[in-house]
Each structure stands twice: as C-alpha cells, then as structure tokens.
C-alpha cells in the first residue's frame, strides 16, 4: 500500500476531537463517510445509529451540529477548513429532536417505495 500525501487544498475538519480530511466540493456527510464514519447521531427511542441515508437533503437522517449550530443536514453543508462537527459526546446530537421523526418516516417511505418498485414486500416496523 502506498502512502498518499494530502493534497495542499485538503480541508481539515474536527469531528468529536478527531481530524477528518475533506476535499473541496465534498459535503460534510461525504467527507465523514469517506473517513469511515458511518453514523454521527442516534435516535432517542432505541438509540439506533443515523448518518447518510438519501444523501440529497430529503430525509433528515444526517442531521449534525456544525460549528455549534444544531440540525444541519450533513449531506447539504459544504465541507470547509476548520469546521467543528458533532457534539462532544455521541448520542447527544440536538438533531434528534427536530429530524428524528421526519427522518424515520422518510426512511420508511423510501424503503416501502423501493420494495414496491422491486415487487417485494417491505414489512412495517
């Protein structure tokens, strides 16, 4: 495996104390996912992990705190140098309150639609 030097225009964001690199043009959600971070909040009921789902700003599953501002959609926020992402403790995202229900409903609807398109049955939760 070869060592790849970071590009000079690579951004450095901080997620819960860890440095996350991002390329110009990436969203915060894309950069987190590229860094191997698949979830950054949990649901209030059940503590289920949430991260990117639709990736286009429809579902609200990717809500994250950016520079102290809660409830930002990670898939829509452009990556930038020096951004502080997420809260200090996992599971304490403010986005749980605003987007959890909308995100879960959108996820369920998308899953049902996918099942209908494929002719399969999607069990309700």
From TrEMBL:
<feature type="region of interest" description="Disordered">
    <location>
        <begin position="82"/>
        <end position="125"/>
    </location>
</feature>
<feature type="compositionally biased region" description="Low complexity">
    <location>
        <begin position="92"/>
        <end position="116"/>
    </location>
</feature>
<keyword id="KW-0560">Oxidoreductase</keyword>
<dbReference type="InterPro" id="IPR036010">
    <property type="entry name" value="2Fe-2S_ferredoxin-like_sf"/>
</dbReference>
<protein>
    <submittedName>
        <fullName>(2Fe-2S)-binding protein</fullName>
    </submittedName>
</protein>
<dbReference type="InterPro" id="IPR042204">
    <property type="entry name" value="2Fe-2S-bd_N"/>
</dbReference>
<dbReference type="Pfam" id="PF13510">
    <property type="entry name" value="Fer2_4"/>
</dbReference>
């Amino acid at each position: 495996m070869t060592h790849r030097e970071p590009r000079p225009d690579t951004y450095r964001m901080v997620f819960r104390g860890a440095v996350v690199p991002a390329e110009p043009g990436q969203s915060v959600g894309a950069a987190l996912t590229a860094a191997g971070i698949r979830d950054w909040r949990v649901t209030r009921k059940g503590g289920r992990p949430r991260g990117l789902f639709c990736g286009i700003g429809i579902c609200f599953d990717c809500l994250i705190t950016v520079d102290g501002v809660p409830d930002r959609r990670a898939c829509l926020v452009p990556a930038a140098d020096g951004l502080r992402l997420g809260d200090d403790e996992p599971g304490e995202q403010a986005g749980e309150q605003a987007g959890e229900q909308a995100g879960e409903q959108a996820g369920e609807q998308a899953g049902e639609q996918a099942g209908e398109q494929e002719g399969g049955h999607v069990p309700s939760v």
